[in-house]
Amino acid sequence: MQIVLAALLMVASTQFNTKPQKKALRQPYPETGFWVTENMPGKSGTIVRYYANSNHLVSTVTEPANLDITKVSVRRYLNKKLASELSRDSTKASILKLYEIN
After folding, report:
1. Model pTM score
2. Angle subtended at Cα 63 by Cα 59 and Cα 69, rounded to the nearest 5 degrees
3. 31-62 pLDDT, tens per residue?
4. DSSP string, the chain
């Protein structure tokens, strides 16, 4: 009888968890292409490489400060820079899709 009572209390306590649930962070993803950042230990500045969807390197930019990509505002900034770099891409390799490359 005591085991059944203990089991019921355990089930009841797990079902009525009153901790507030965390909301999922909204990740701002770029519409096309992607970017990669590289921070060098002991040095200030961040190297940002912008790529098209076809894995073609569009440009490499060195930012003067260390960028913290865990911040949503930094990711939005990099996405805007990616869009401008893709629009300036003279090779138009960003139009190619991976499945179209022979």
Report:
1. 0.62
2. 95
3. 788 999 999 888 899 999 999 887 889 999 99
4. -HHHHHHHHHHHHHHT--PPPPPPPPP---SS-EEEEEE-TTS--EEEEEE-TTS-EEEEEEESS---TTSHHHHHHHHHHHHHHHHT-SS-GGG--GGG--
